[in-house]
Amino acid sequence: MSIQNKIRVINRLEQIVSEFKIKYPQNTPAHHELVKLSDELNNLKGYLNKLDELKPNYTTNDVDQYMVAINLNMDILKNELEITDYVRLKKAVKVLKVILKFHPTRYTFIEFAVIWLYELIYFI
User: Fold this and answer.
1) Closest among 76, 17, 5, 77 to 41, alpha carbons compared
2) 8-37 per-position pLDDT tens digit
3) Structural contact between residues 17 and 119, judged by C-beta atoms closer than 8 angstroms
């Protein structure tokens, strides 16, 4: 249940990225970085799904390496996107960072409340 909430937030972030991929033409560096960011989000989502299925050799220690790649893409996109688009994307990534601080396989009511509050503030 806890991982499904995290995946729901990642899906919302992917929707934002796909909107920006349509907005920016394919020959721009911004589009190229948005494609990379989308790939990294898909990798993170696949990793969380493997955790949910309790596949062997999957620990929660690997979340940081996925976030490092996402942060790198965000740093590059800072100069490539318009300011309003970058702020919107930055807020969505901030929500992702906050919810990933909670343990992915344990579900708590506090986590649910925090995710709901952040989604209310940043996505609506």
Assistant:
1) 17
2) 889 999 999 999 999 988 888 899 999 999
3) no
Question: Counting runs of H as helices and runs of E as strands, what totals does the chain give?
Answer: 5, 0
Question: How far is 48 from 55, CA to CA, in rounded Å?
Answer: 10
Distance CA 2, CA 13 (A): 17
Structure tokens at 13: 């972030």
Domain ranges of the chain: 2-123
**Coil, strand, or helix at residue 118?**
helix
Cα 57 to chain centroid distance, Å, stands at 23
Put simply, whether the predicted model's pTM sits higher than 0.90 gets the answer: no
Q: For residue 55, what are its two tokens?
A: 């596949």
Kindly report the three-state secondary structure assignment for every residue of 69-97: HHHHHHHHHHHHCCHHHHHHHHHHHHHHH
